[in-house]
Amino acid sequence: MMGNHFSIILLPTNKCNVNCEYCFEDKTDDRMSLDQLSTVMSKVFDYMDESSIRGLTIHWQGGEIMTMPLEWFEGAHDLIQNAAVTRGKVVEHGLQSNLIGYHARWNNLIQEMFGNAVGTSMDYPNVHRKLFNGSASDYTRIWKYNVQSALSAGINIGVIAVPNQSTLDVGAEEFYSYFVDEIGVKSFQVNTPFPGGEENDTKKTLGLDIEQLGQFFVDLTDVWLERGYNRGVSVGPVDELVQRFTDGGGCLPCIWQSNCADEFISIDARGFVAQCDCWVTSYPEYFFGNIYENDSLGKMLLESSARRRFVERPGVVIPKDCIRCDYLSICHGGCPVRTYTFSGTMFEKDPYCGVYLSIFRKAEEAAAKLAQARALNKQAQTGSVSVSQRKQIPEDTLITNLPILPSRLVQIERRH
Ligand code: SF4
Ligand code: SF4
Ligand code: SF4
User: For the whole model, what pTM was predicted?
Assistant: First the structure.
């Protein structure tokens, strides 16, 4: 099902140390023991053997991952590496944390297990991310301090931001400046909000005006092209889309895969298996099964009626809603969980369709302009460009060769 690589979003804890108002998780105090992790890994490797897959990426998140003891992770790392060697597998690890519990004693583990990189989350302005007994500004203050400590320790930080109405009000320029100039990150990704999990008043306000949100992404693309593109800053998902329109490459997020059900599964601390972290923590009716209770992960995935609904979604949505779309080969009808949480069914196109169209058109236009600049740049270097043509080349593209975009720290949709 997943080519020669398999990915899992692993939640060894369903517990969190903060209280974000838009959180889609129904949190519990469950934690995975090392014995349970050993069982999970054994069944995952069995499944990979059956499917002739050698490579595995584990995206670690929660709940909040840093509520687990550091020693647990050291044990987990040894356990997985030893099992991988025995089973002839190659395992990579990615870490997603809110960083509220970060401390320098995590640094060695982050370097050895996670390639010295962490994905974290923050919105600008921060409205919904709060401490249990504190305001959004208290949260922001601690997060900023910890991120800057981690950056000072040489850790690569990628940030996921979810826009709210205040984000649209301040605009793309201020948003970009906050992350890049004030915080100092070189990689961030903007995800669209959705009202997953139990209802509350905040979730009723998460939907944003589609036209305004689309314009925000267009403006953000312009800011990034002017201030970040040639300076090693990546802004997802726009950067990868520009790459896609440039040479067919680019690593697009799960919302734009031909079917996210072909890409990965999520397993939580209780052993439940579902499509991704949102489904596994909030929608029992969409669980594929429990890995502790099933001998074969492959059989469970094959026989799950819940999983079949994900597999069948594009076959229903595309002929109905998307068949005439110019960007069908990129988007495939979008994200099931966004559709489900706004529309009550996953068998419709993504409610952010209008935003995606704005982003696709802008990225396509940007790729065309960059290709033209690249061609003129080449001619300028060989002396075969006219004076008037030379004036059309942006300064930045004349100074250096246009870079290959940096690969992204995170590709799955995460919020924690
Ligand atoms: S976020 Fe959406 S596209 Fe990504 S795995 Fe979950 S349901 Fe699929
Ligand atoms: S952009 Fe809209 S119409 Fe096009 S494939 Fe995506 S959801 Fe369907
Ligand atoms: S969004 Fe993530 S960090 Fe925030 S409360 Fe939920 S699990 Fe915790």
Answer: 0.91
